[in-house]
Amino acid sequence: MKTFQLSGTSRQEVGKKSTRELRKQNLIPCVMYGQKKDSEGKSVAVSFTVKKDDVRKLIYTPDIFVVDLTIDGQLHNAILQELQFHPVKDTVLHIDFLEINEAKPIVMAVPVQLTGLAAGVKAGGKLEQISRRIKVKALYNNIPERLVIDVTNLALGKSIKVADLSFEGLEMVSPADAVVCGVMTTRSSREASAGEEAEGEAAE
Predict the structure, then answer these.
(1) Whole-prediction pTM
(2) Nearest CA to 54 among 118, 90, 1, 6?
(3) In this structure, how many other beta carbons lie within 10 angstroms of the beta carbon of residue 118?
């Protein structure tokens, strides 16, 4: 995966009033879960802020990244886990990060890339991509930037589901019956099919 450089500043106050003040300063409240533990061995969330402008290229992109996240001078390897948007303004309100442990698998939504000319498209159908991303589980070093799916043999009226996919080193986490893509019938494909049936009957 590509890497993204990001700097943050730790924060102690995490109440609503403090959060509102941070957003007025164009700062986004964040937390990072992962390696830090308390005295009982439970994960502790690290609270910090990042500048709104610093995360635009991380958020508004189809790509996925390993984030080199520096908080108060200390470097962490993390991934973007969850975003919270304002329901009306669509601005980012909060970001969750997950710190990476090289020995532990992580779950990540990976972009899907379709390749090839589907047989059903040649027959006049239309290829529709339903799932833009698929969740997988793996060691982060094994997670690719894209899940490349060949649709060359996909016939008219057929679809590819998550259950039909297999990638070395990856465990599919998205529902098995989730449709990734399919070739839909169109007016031209129905007319072509009707024409072929008529020709077949005439030949008989």
Answers:
(1) 0.82
(2) 6
(3) 23
